[in-house]
From TrEMBL, chains A, B, C:
The chain crosses the membrane at residues 12-31, 67-87, 94-114, 126-145, 152-174, 180-201, 213-233, 253-273, 285-302, 308-325, 346-364, 394-415. One of its GO terms (cellular component) is plasma membrane. The keyword Glycoprotein applies. Belongs to the ammonium transporter (TC 2.A.49) family. Rh subfamily. This is Ammonium transporter AmtB-like domain-containing protein. Functions as an ammonia transporter. May play a role in the elimination of ammonia in the gill. Keywords: Ammonia transport, Cell membrane, Glycoprotein, Membrane, Transmembrane, Transmembrane helix, Transport. GO terms for biological process: ammonium homeostasis.
Length: 461, 461, 461
């Protein structure tokens, strides 16, 4: 089935090995344990006043593990909805995530601040690397089924680099808040991926259309991904906020936003179907938009009620996007968005950025008390200008959109080179191109075993 | 397949939107961040003696996440064992849980104590809301496959309200211990659900009997639910116990109870089968009874050995219940209990309440030392009367049974109104009534693709 | 299908009940809460200087839960790759793990130190018991599909006992470091299991060969196991290291090792396939070897770069082992290793032991500072001889190999007795022997329902 032009025999091993060797060399040269992971440094600083329970590990590792589950199980299984692309969905997700988190450690370290020429790593850098990986996996959703693993790794190389630069501009230069990544992760990942899939437009993709859909069991596998993303999103948004009240508040705001989002998703999914039937695509995806949409404002004093309003809106626009916008994007703008990332990450990400800007513009010392500087970092007493802060948040969104679209454009053209073994139009959404797929179906093998030819005759007579 | 009377086109969206709007208004009016989530309050109270690591978040959030997994993955996938009801099992579980946790926040807040007219929320209220949701999902198990999502939401409205009242009577008025909810969650949820399904009795349910069973893969999906419930039950029972030794001890007692329960489940599952074969229904459900049965006594000095005895008994009665009691309940008492919640939550819940009462009645200051008040709250030195405490525990069980049966009766009759789009007897346990179900099976689509008509002829000749 | 000789009707219940009764008696006689779980002891020791957040629970319980997930979901689902053995894979994994963790608590308690004649239990003993269980499950992988549950329980009895003895020799007598169990868990479990399966060699196993393979969906279920093992391995390796920097560092080293291992696994999986296609067996297993291989050195100052080199090598040898060594082991040495545990746990375990010995031999006070004693326990200032430490690490590997092979040999012969209801050669890898398996396939039931005979005629005409 796979002709030689799609063979991964040499391309994939070569690329993986070269990349890993480069990573190992760069890590050996540049990466050091930080104060909380280094045996010498931690124990020098540890005094009776600073005990082991103050190690960053205990504040963040449970959140890290939840994020890790979202990246590998959440994104991986969410994409198994396709009937013949489960191996690739989970497998390529696994591969590009494992690469991206290493590469992100370096890129974020380069850009966000070296310490005496060294990149310091610990649980915070691990969370940040997983976050950056999340953006790559969002973009993967747009091109799912239409790209070779080599293309995906190449995409990851560029996207991680640009992610780190954009993140640096937002967090360090513009002083933006974006703890849960409405802008840096979701908006960036979505529009980057949408631009890549636009450049890779396949006019004859309908030749693989019969495989571009789900079957009963593949939808259940996808629900594993959905539910894990949904449950752990509070940990995602709160993973790198300040200790104490911000971490606690962010988790709770996200919890309420997602709960409200689920109700609006079910409501609009039934409403837009002419028989009133629910659509698994909406449940699998739109119910998560509430997490995306409080990615910026979640750490602020958004209130539970405010979070629920945002979540409700996010679920609504996401379902409506799947129903009415995605077909238009494909037919008019030639954007073939396999997973509908525009509806799950794109529009809710922008909503999240706007909500963040507005919430920041309304933040007063009266509401936040001494906690103001814990949320908005750079504040000095008496100098807090929330409207300026809100403005910078809005600029951050614009910068992110620009970086994502430009980066996706360039990366798309690089991925168009005919050297990566991309699948032909007739064999998109098909595992057998890149995987040894077991040949027989269980139903048949069981029948063969249980019923010999003679028994079959008896049964049919 | 769905006639207009079961259409969710208007009913479900209307109900969801109205409920969410009411929730948003009530949250906006009544709900405030608590001392650990409010930026101003936490930072006012934070001093050098009270550091961020004392924020409730770090004591409870990992437990909360485990509970959250049990609610959404555990309960959701446990019910996917039905061959044609996987979408509804996971999906409706998702919907009613997302609604219930919001509604529970309000109801529990109303009843358990307002602070100056406001409900305070934080990680503890999140855990309590998830707990209340658990009771609704237990009841869902009894009516699984025979109810529309609108019916389920209406059931949740009533059940959550009564749950909060019952919980208030037990914990506040009677001063009962029930950290893991043997009474408040399991006994209440089970007998409430059993009464609802009794009122909704369908004499002609056998018309859908061929769909009321599992297939190979659906049993494996259900095992995902089972195993997650089993693994995280120690976190469930310990999630809201006092910090320190009670949380630690509860988790451990539950761990041993479940381990012993698993052995008795396997033992009796093989024993009651005339070929000695294991039954997936038992493994999926009865192995969990050990967690239910130490839900009250788990925080007490039950000892590992005591926990194992309780777990062993729980597994035994649960398997025997599935084998011998469930058929009788259906044929004699007209209780159609789809998931057998009487065996998993009902009887083990009562066992747990009894074990709790006995263990409390045997508690002495000699054994608990200064820890006595950390377990039994209200104790004043020298005034500890364990036998009275045990009596109150027993009264609590009786109150719970009464509230559950009465509440289920009323709710059942409300759910009987012919306005909710309930499935007809011929289409119970069928996803296609409420969901867009992918039409083709993978095996067939693959065959079509691999084999053209000509090839098919060759194969069959 | 099952003849009487494989019936579990009496054998399994008797064994389970007898074992659990023995466990309960021994727990009742010998086991006590430790200082962190006992109500009296913890509250006596609790002072203003020692608050609840210092309870071991908060340091280790999140890690414990991750380990618990690996044991029950990770190992359980990893083995569901077989097309007709999913119930047994998850179910027997569940049974023998639930038994082993209880038995391990006793055996490890006996051997590692009684306190005034009592075994003390808390979260550390729970983690250690789960670790020991891990070794049994590794061995289970070698004999998967060829053993009855009674045989597996008997194997667990012996293996747990020997595990505890070997662990005592290594950790207490030889003072070895092995926090993540490269030696005690992986090497021991692998070579024990390989020797057992050697003794149980079945010359006619090819009669069941058609069932000894995967189907599409079973491979996806197995990926659930793989991904959970992969994600939580950092928690596994760090679960019982010292508080603070060692726990933090171990988790991070494991994270990088696994990431690098994933890239080498994909690279070599494509390279060794003549069409360049990826093999699910490699992805499911070899990608995990990086966690095994830093099980000893992970807590040391291995550096991220060092971890990546080790992970890369581990993935490489593991894939090559699956491709080239496993067939030879079967044909020449008569070792039928169903899951290929030699490639996932055996060789990477030995690699991990060697890496640990070398890293220990290179450890200097200059690098570790005051943290040296936190990693290498027994160090006194000025007396640190790393090369001797490295030697003891190497001796530990030799001891482990000897204990495992000897223990496996004896246990294998005990398991060979014809009294356990082992499956006949014709019915290996078959759930129906020990389970009530639902008879019909979903595809067919759906067809029957949707299309009546008349409709079928119309469709086919």
């Amino acid at each position: 089935m796979a002709d030689s032009s799609t063979s991964m025999r040499l391309r994939l091993p070569l690329l993986c090995i070269i990349l890993e060797v480069i990573l190992i060399i760069l890590f050996g040269t540049l990466v050091e344990y930080d104060q909380h992971t280094d045996a010498k440094l931690w124990n020098e600083n540890r005094t009776s006043a600073r005990n082991d329970y103050e190690n960053e590990f205990y504040y963040r590792y449970p959140s890290f593990q939840d994020v890790h589950v979202m990246i590998f199980v959440g994104f991986g299984f969410l994409m198994t909805f396709l009937q013949r692309y489960g191996f690739s969905s989970v497998g390529f997700n696994f591969l590009i995530a494992a690469f991206s988190l290493q590469w992100a450690t370096l890129m974020q370290g380069f850009v966000h601040g070296m310490h005496h020429g060294k990149i310091h790593v610990g649980v915070e850098s691990m969370i940040n690397a997983d976050f950056c990986t999340g953006a790559v996996l969002i973009s993967f959703g747009a091109v799912l089924g239409k790209t070779s693993p080599v293309q995906l790794l190449v995409m990851a190389i560029f996207e991680v680099t640009l992610f780190a630069i954009n993140e640096f501009i937002l967090l360090s230069l513009l002083g933006a808040n974006d703890a849960g990544g409405s802008m840096t992760i979701h908006t960036f990942g979505a529009y980057f991926g949408l631009m890549v899939t636009r450049v890779l437009y396949r006019p004859n993709l309908n030749k693989s259309q019969h495989r571009n859909s789900s079957v009963y069991h593949s939808d259940l596998f996808a629900m594993i991904g959905t539910i894990y993303l949904w449950m752990f999103w509070p940990s995602f948004n709160s993973a790198i906020t300040h200790h104490g009240d911000p971490q606690h508040r962010t988790a709770m705001n996200t919890y309420y936003s997602l709960a409200a989002c689920t109700l609006s998703t079910f409501a609009f999914s039934a409403l837009v179907n002419h028989e009133g039937k629910l659509d698994m695509v909406h449940i699998q995806n739109a119910a998560l938009a509430g997490g995306v949409a409080v990615g910026t404002a979640g750490e602020m004093m958004l209130t539970a009620c405010g979070s629920m309003i945002v979540g409700f809106l996010a679920g609504t626009i996401s379902v409506l996007g799947y129903k009415y916008l995605t077909p238009v994007l494909e037919s008019k703008l030639k954007i073939q968005d396999t997973c509908g990332i525009h509806n799950l990450h794109g529009m809710p990400g922008i909503l999240g950025a706007v909500v963040g800007a507005v919430t920041a513009a309304l933040a007063t010392p009266d509401v936040y008390g001494k906690g103001l500087e814990r949320v908005f970092g750079e504040v000095e007493t008496g100098q807090w200008k929330p409207e300026i802060k809100g403005g910078f948040q809005a600029i951050s969104l614009a910068v992110t959109l620009g970086m994502a679209l430009f980066g996706g454009l360039v990366t798309g053209f690089i991925l168009k080179l005919p050297i990566y073994g991309a699948p032909p139009d007739t064999h998109c959404f098909e595992d057998a191109l890149y995987w040894e797929v077991p040949g027989e179906e269980e139903g048949h093998s069981e029948l063969q075993e249980v019923a010999s030819p003679n028994e079959m005759e008896k049964l049919s007579s």
